[in-house]
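Handout, section 4.2: multi-component inputs.
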Amino acid sequence: MDKVLIIDDDPKLLKMLERTLTYEGLTVITASNGLEALPLVSSELPDLIILDWLMPKMDGLTFLEKLRDFGNKTMTLMLTARDAVENRVLGLESGADDYLVKPFAPSELVARVHAMLRRVQKEPENQPVAYGGISLDPTTREVLVSGKQIDLTVTEFDLLHLLLRHPRQVLERQQILNEVWGYDFYGNDNVLEVYIGYLRKKLRKGDLDQLIQTVRGVGYVMKEGK
Amino acid sequence: MDKVLIIDDDPKLLKMLERTLTYEGLTVITASNGLEALPLVSSELPDLIILDWLMPKMDGLTFLEKLRDFGNKTMTLMLTARDAVENRVLGLESGADDYLVKPFAPSELVARVHAMLRRVQKEPENQPVAYGGISLDPTTREVLVSGKQIDLTVTEFDLLHLLLRHPRQVLERQQILNEVWGYDFYGNDNVLEVYIGYLRKKLRKGDLDQLIQTVRGVGYVMKEGK
DNA sequence: CCCCATGTTCACAGGATTTTAACAGTAAAA
DNA sequence: TTTTACTGTTAAAATCCTGTGAACATGGGG
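Output:
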């Protein structure tokens, strides 16, 4: 079961968060400030840390810096009362993996938490995958198209890997963006088309570019025929 | 049909909300405070609860705490007066799934309510469905008619999916428009006929176009025979 | 500091899909 | 039978979506 550490100095809010996430079937541990939380991280090894930006003793930012200094890579979700864009930047730069502006609907929190945990859970996908003449080995990062080896950049690789792991299954644009570019991707999602384009061009080397099919209005599928 | 419980101590507002949502085709039950509402939750099993934050006897916040303490997970929409400071944490502390700041436009309320209800309903809809020679798989988006595969656009797909999920059940025009085109569809509802036409034409490929039957003055059904 | 590789954004053409509108057809009501 | 209310069919118009080349941004290495 997934374990979440929540750090917030407001007891009511803490209670609320705890209850909400416990309903969701998560194991919840709490702390009221960063100082108190630090030892819990190493003893409890949570899968996700939710923390407030503003806290006494040790605020969210400082906590994150300390955490990262220790080389800890646990996923973190930052809560912030301010909604300025600069905070988003700050929050992310400080090492938070996502952030949420207060006030937010609990359902939104739950959605984010699940999205993040899903991402964490993703087992070390190290198994080679293959489909329709394309094979990809995550450990060596080698990709063969009709026997020929092709070179892919990281993003291209991740995208192809995702498609190959779900052959014949239509993946929605948002789903792909979430998986490859990270949950909560804001930018112009035309990147996806651009990368599909790159991939097709490279797959053309083995005449397999038609394997990536567009499903207009939905997303893309890796499948033969049609 | 979706059932909504509205809890508010202001009779005028209550009346207004009731009328608005009833007009939207929802079943509405009301209570003027939390104390009164609590038993209704277990007897009526509403799909959604709309409640005011400030109420006599038992306010919204307390009501929600009680509700959650009982382990009840019904969706809740909190109404609140505008107040800069309180709003910061309201969403969170209330434990509501969504909130709306007064004053609000009825259309906004309606939009939220429908969005929430759709969320409640729409969870498990990636199971393949089949009826009378037609099969549809939401994950691959493949549709087979008498064994032959046909290509559908998003709208066609959604419409067919809806019909297949309710075989032999007459779906009203408005109901279909709500599901497929969204609750806020005002356009010329001739689109529905047009799309039924498209679908029938494509189903004709497997000689199953007569499966979509017109129920004059009401809507359409997916059923064999006649 | 500049260059290069990678990643992201922009603009826009060409197509596919969706909507509108007009009218023909058909069942029910008068 | 006539009238009316709905429904089906088409085609054109409006809109939306995707692919593409090129510009722009970033960061690491030389």
